[in-house]
Specification:
Distance between the termini: 33 Å
Helix content: 40-55%
Number of strands: 6
Largest sheet: 6 strands, mixed
Length: 118
């Protein structure tokens, strides 16, 4: 008998909820709550902030990215940032310098020790 991985997903993550509830119920036990920190909580130590490319850049511009990730790092000992769709189209359409985007990723990974998956 295999045990299901228990995860908590923020109730505002509708795409992710649909994906995990419909296709992966034999693997995950999904609980849906409004989370103050993180989009997905995997354990008391591991939590994930998920950003789509445009949201990542937008959160840099409006100064919420570093606040969100600092709270994630302070709350969970193994924080993870997952980036989806961070591609050339995002760089061209935002007007933000690509060096600023990569600089933010380097800071997050190196200075704060947050794992990043792309």
């Amino acid at each position: 008998m295999s045990k299901k991985l228990k995860i908590i997903i923020d109730n505002r993550e509708s795409k992710l909820i649909e994906l995990l509830k419909s296709d992966k119920e034999e693997i995950f036990e999904v609980n849906i709550e409004q989370l103050d920190v993180a989009d997905i909580v995997v354990s008391k130590d591991v939590a994930i902030e998920r950003k789509e490319g445009g949201d990542y850049v937008g959160s840099i511009i409006d100064n919420r990215l570093f606040e969100q990730l600092l709270r994630l790092k302070e709350t969970y000992s193994n924080p993870i940032l997952i980036l989806e769709g961070l591609n050339d189209d995002i760089f061209e359409n935002t007007g933000m310098n690509i060096k600023s985007i990569y600089g933010s990723l380097a800071f997050i990974a190196y200075k704060w020790g947050i794992s990043i998956s792309h």
